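NAD(P)-dependent oxidoreductase
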Amino acid sequence: MKTIGFIGLGTMGLPMAANLLKKGFGVFVWNRTASKADELVPLGARKAESPAHAAREADVVVTMLSDDATVLDVYEGEDGVLAGLRAGTAVFDSSTVSPDTSRRLHAACRERGASFIDAPVTGSKPAAESGTLLFMAGGDRSVLEANEDVLLAMGRRIVYMGESGAGSYAKLAHNTIVGINAIGLIEGMSIAAKAGIDARSFLEVVQSGGAASKQADLKGLKIIERDFSNQFSGKLMLKDLRLAVQLIGELGVTAPMLDLARAQFERGVQAGWGDEDLCALVRWYEDQMDMVIGEDRR
């Protein structure tokens, strides 16, 4: 089987790498905080000394990192991925970054005889753990098809979006909808709570009606049960919405709802909730209402 160099063992990356190991792939792992790899070693992972080392050992490199600056540093820095990349290697970046960054790395990999695919995912931590992520991919379709086995060890579906950068465009458009939907869910639950409606009963209505959404399924009970453990953090949501705002400026698209959602997540991060799940933003609404959604007010 192919050997994978997996770089970035955060909330999403660690379970993704674990699924590769469980499917029998040999995996070299690297993370800035090296101890993150410790729980993968019993599954058969081997620790790489650097991103260059992971790339040098790999047939396929997969990166899952937090933002553009981190991605560029891990690829272009001393002992970065590009320094160890061999001709013929396929590189998949599942980070959410700007299309410009994806195209820049595509060109850099091509210069070294390697192939780069931007392959961000939809599905938060639970989907990463269950191996049910969806990959949206931009780049050479033949390279994607030749390595479907790697991606499908971590996910359930791959959607080809087009040339290099198309996956990143799709992910930012997708996360625009996620951010707006999350705000809509929180605001609707706030209205119902302030009106004295039982939160669990209202959530049942939402999930069964025209307001049904993945956000309602993933975040509704978390809000009611005050579970702000991180599936997808508020600061990463804000990062993606900022990238999307930059993108609409370049494309000439008018998106007032996007800017409103970005402003709300700015408030959440400024309040200190950025490392918690994005649904922790409900606290801002609860502060305005002077009540907690789901509390017994009888």
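thats it. The two ends are 61 Å apart (CA to CA). Residues 166-194 form the longest helix (29 residues). bye
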